[in-house]
Design goal:
By secondary structure, the protein is mostly helical. Helices cover about 75% and strands about 5% of the residues. It contains 22 helices and 4 strands. The strands form 2 sheets. Strands 1-2 form a two-stranded antiparallel ribbon. The chain has a two-stranded antiparallel sheet with strand order 3-4. It is globular and about 65 Å long.
Amino acid sequence: MPPLDRTSREAPEERPLHGPAGFAVDALIVLVVAALVGGVVVLARRWEAPIRTTTAIDLSPRALPGYTLLSLSRGFAAYLLSLVFTLVYGTVAAHSKRAEKVMIPLLDIGQGIPVLGFLPGLVLGMVALFPHSNIGLELACILMIFTGQVWNMVFSFYGSLRAVPSELREVARIHRFTWFRTFRTVEVSAATIGLVWNSMMSMAGGWFFLTVNEAFTLGNRDFRLPGIGSYMAVAIEKGDTRAMLWAIVAMSLMIVAVDQLLWKPLVAWSERFRLEDLASTEKPRSWMLDLIRRSPLLRRLRRARREAEDTAEGAVAVPPPVPVPSAGGGGGGENASRRLLVRILLGMVGAGALVLSGWGAFELVRLLLAVPGREWIVLALALGSTFLRTLGALVLSALWTVPAGILIGRSPIWSRRLQPVAQLVASFPAPMIFPIVTGALLAMGVPFGIVASALMLLGAQWYVLFNVLAGASAVPHDLEEAAETYRLRGVDKWKKLFLPAVFPYLVTGLITAAGGAWNASIVAESLTYKGRPLQTFGLGSTITQATAAANFPLLAAGVLTMSLALIALNRSIWRPLYRLAETKYSLNR
C-alpha cells in the first residue's frame, strides 16, 4: 500500500528553526495570512458599500497600494472559483465518454468567446440583482476574471487525467480505493505539476482584461470599480504618463510578490508528484518553501494532523469485506431508491437548464432577427481577417516557445533563473503595454493591421510557453537516461524524446493560446493611442464597436459568429490533435 497511499514523494525533513529565527519565520507566516484576511475584509467592505453611478479614481501614487490589494483579492477569489470548477468539470469530462462529447466542445467555445461577449449581460444582470450595493459589480468583475483563468486550467487537468498511467488505476482497483481516494491520491497527484504551471498562466490570463473588467462602460453607463486596472485605464484616457508608470511599477511588484510567495513554492512542492523511477539530480528550490518547512508553528500543526490521520487510519485499518447480495436482493431496495432519487434530482436540474436554454435561445433569435443581411456578410469577412491574425500568432508562438520551453523546462538551473522573469512578463496585462508597443511599431512605419497581429501574439504566446514548460519538466528522467543509453544526441534526441513527450502539452497550449488570441483581438484590433482611435478590420473590432454603441443585436451576432467558427475549429483541428496526442504520444501508451 505505501507506494500508492502516498504517491507523492515526501520532502526531506528540514532542520527546524529555534529561538529568534523560528519566531521570525512564524511571525512572517502569520503576517502573510493576516494580509490575506485583510484583503478579504477590504473586499467585503466594498461589497457592502452603496452603488455609485460614477466612481472617481485617484491617480496619486498613495492610492495604488489599496487599489492593488483590491485587484489582487478579486484575482484570488476568481482563482479559487476556477480551481473548484476545474476539479469538477475536468473529472466529469475525463471519466464520462458521453459527457466528454459535449463538455470539451463547450469548453473550447467558452474560452474563445470574447470577454465583451460575457460582460454586458453579466454586468447588467448582476446590477439588476443587487441594485443598491456593489455586490453585483464585484461579482461580475470576479466572474469575468474567472472567464480569463478557468479554460487553461480545465484543459490541463482534463489532459492530465486522460494520461494517468493505467498501472496506477489498476493498483487502485486492486487495493479497493474508493472513487474519492483514487481521485485524491492518484489523479490529482498525477495532474499537480501541469495544474501548477497552468495556474500561473491562468492568473496571467485573469489579469489580461483587468483594465476592461474594472473600468467597463456600456454606452453612456459607467460601471467602474476601484482597482489597479481602472487606475491604468483612467491614466491612459487622460494621457498621464507618470500615473501609467506608477501603475506598471505597482503591477510588477504585485506579480513578483505573488511569484515568490506562492508560485515558486508551489513549483518546488509539486516536484514530489513527478511520476518516475529515477530521482532528478537537481530540483527547483524555493526560499519561501524552505522557511515554511522549517517553521516551528507549522511543524507542530503538521505533526498534529499526521497523528489525527494515523488515528483515523488505525480505526479503519482493515476494510470490511464487500457484502455479497443475497438471492432475495437484500439491500437492493435501498440502492434502487437511492438511484431513483439521483435520477429525479438530475431530471429536475436538466429540466431547469432546458427552460433557461429555451428562454436564452428565444432572446438570441429575437436579437439576431434585428441584424440586417449585409451585416452578416461583413461579419463573415471580419471573421476571416481575425482568423488569419490568430493563425499567424499561433505559428509564431510555437516557433519560439517550443524550443525555449524545452530548454528551460529540462534545466532546473535555468528554470529557477528564468521562471521569475517569465512569470513577470507573462502575468503582466498586455493591454497595459499595448500603447507602448503600438507607438514603437507605428514609429517604424508598420501598418496597424500588422500591429494588431503583434498585439495578439503578446496575448497568446505565454499559454504555449507555460504548457511546454510543464511538459518538459514532467518528462521522466528515466526516459532521458534511456536516451543516453541508446546514445541519442542532438536532433535525434529532440525528435524521438523531447518533442513527442511535450506534444500533448503543446496541443493544450495551442488550444488555450488560440482562445487567448481571439480574446486579445477585442483590444488589439481597436484601441486608442495618444487620443487617436486606431482600428483594423476584424471580428474583435466589430464586437468592440458594438459594445461601445450598446448595439446588442450586432454584439450577439458577432459572438455567435465566433462561437460557430470555434465549433468548426474544434471538430476539424483540435479534436483530431487531442486524439493523436492520446493515442500516439501519451506516456500512458
